[in-house]
Amino acid sequence: MASRITSLDEFAAVEHLLGEEERTVRDTVRHFVQKTCMATIRADFEQGRFASEWIPDLARLGLLGAPLEGYGCAGISQAAYGLACAELEACDSGLRSFVSVQTSLAMFAIWRFGSEEQKQAWLPKMAAGKAIGCFGLTEPGHGSDPGGLTTRALRTDTGWKLTGTKMWITNAQVADVAVVWAKTGDGADSIRGFLVARGTAGFAAHDIPHKLSMRASHTGSLTLDEVELPASAQFPNASGLRAPLSCLDNARFGVAWGMLGAARFCLQRAIDYSRDRTQFGVPLARKQLVQAPIADLGSRWIAAMVLSLHYARLKDAGKLLPVQVSVLKRNNCRLALDTARTARELLGANGITGEYDVLRHAVNLESTLTYEGTEQIHTLAIGRALTGEAAF
Description:
Layout: H1 8-12, H2 20-37, H3 41-47, H4 55-60, H5 78-91, H6 93-113, H7 116-127, E1 133-136, E2 152-155, E3 159-170, E4 177-183, E5 191-197, E6 203-207, E7 219-230, H8 242-276, E8 278-279, E9 282-283, H9 288-316, H10 322-346, H11 358-368, H12 375-387
Helix pairs in contact: 2-5, 5-6, 5-8, 6-7, 6-8, 8-9, 8-10, 8-11, 9-10, 10-11, 10-12
């Protein structure tokens, strides 16, 4: 029998490109996921439940606010954070999404645009898992066009009054604080950010019923009915649409890395199944029609891993462009979804059962292909960068 590579990590051969801290973060998170999270994730997904009991462990591992500096955050490299996201997503998109929204959206927005008082009030508690955040930009009628948002912030004698609705908000139902973006006048240049604490009069979160994807994740809507806020609730350093878009660019990076974990899990499941499953007297792995998609997806996964690591180094150096984040998110999401769908096919009827997990990943990845910028929007962003012409 021909020798075989025993893991996709061995196939990618990037171990020598990682620092000691990065390898430690990856291995520690992988151990936590395999020992703790995988034991219950199928039941959590079926019940539509996010396992909030994992939050203290995620905080103890330093994953909440991991790449941020100060305020109790770990300050790890972007590659280490990306590797952690990949390990979390190998379990479930809902687990990675919780960490991404807490870290790359809510905490990053406060860290980047907040006052020192806002940072001190929220970031240490959020890093410790004692306060949960969400990020309110998307609205029922404004997804790919966030500049058209209709949530309004009107000045009052004591501060601001916010009115509007936000939709598809991860962590909405459990958030202690929401980062809410609203227009203070006409046009996208008037967009400002605000911190709205749970329990503020007129502020409420609601479930989104009948979800068929991201079931092991809190996804909700936010309503703001003349919510009165003090002047100190406004971000002093955020002006215009560029501010929330920079948060989305930051979050897309972690999403893209997470896709590597989902793809790796599904491809490894298909490989193992093809070796164990016998049909017509031989393992499925001996069939050319089985080897061909495995070879294709394995090759794409290696390329995606190397590109992700390269872009992580650029991000640490402050040189990663928004369009490069679009490349990474578009590429890795499509790879992960193709891998999950192909794994489902290779597993035959077993592929639709929760026991093998690949269809759970596939339905989650249908959402990740859309959120943090749809595949089409990222395609047009890349096209604009390459041609110099805007198609949207």
